[in-house]
Fold this protein.
Amino acid sequence: MGMQINLAKSAGFCFGVKRAIDLALKTAGKGGRVYMLGDIVHNEDVISKIQKAGIKKIKALSAGRDKILILRAHGTCIQTLRRARHLGYTVVDATCPMVKEIHRIAKEMEKEGRRVIIIGDKKHDEVHGISGQLKKSAVVIDSIGSFPLNRMKKIKKAAVVVQSTQDTEKVLEIVAALKRLIPELRFYNTVCRPTRIKQEEIRRMPLENDLMIIIGSKTSANTKRLYEISRSLNKRSYRVQSKKDITPDWFRGVKTVGVTAGASTPDSTIQEIVRCLRNKAGRP
Ligand code: SF4
């Protein structure tokens, strides 16, 4: 009997990234000079597709007359948006609606007089974008280890929002610690639904399959995270970037293979690898 290949429902692009790429390609298709601040996702194939479509990556804004600027799925701070408009760019906002919802909550909480706390990666664009919606800078907590305990004790009234891709278990641990310190704390679990599904699958699939394949670029942090969780649950977990990385030896005695992919991996790469695995499994 051949191997069974089980592809995760959440493998690859999330809804927000897919939407942003489609919007970028559609905008480029209409002609004009189209720009993007930084990379849309951490994946070489996607970046090359975007570049071939004529979209240029820039590191900083300059004169923007007759130029279109696409805002990425992770969103941006109000100052950057204002500056882009002031410089003359036509702005196409591809910010994920779920990130926009986090912006809305953060602003509303600040209006209520609460200090906004963001649980997320200090260096991530999404966190800068959330913090950049506020008048007063947000407190950013990325891990319980770097928890600024003394600073927290002074805060009487606060609200917590979460970077959309954070690990829910880690978030709940931090919120429990905050609740002991801040008398009036409101918590909004803004980890998005696609991320929750991804997390649920990566905690279940390595236990249900003999072997796990995690597809994604070496530069993708979320692919690395998926791989690490998978490996902690099933030693036969492998991270691959293309079908060339697959080694036949891995499949000795294997009956079921679970396949997932980071949020920046395009569908074409996933399908190519699944086809390669099906061939190994002796299926059409
Ligand atoms: S909020 Fe979720 S769906 Fe939207 S871009 Fe981020 S990870 Fe993707």
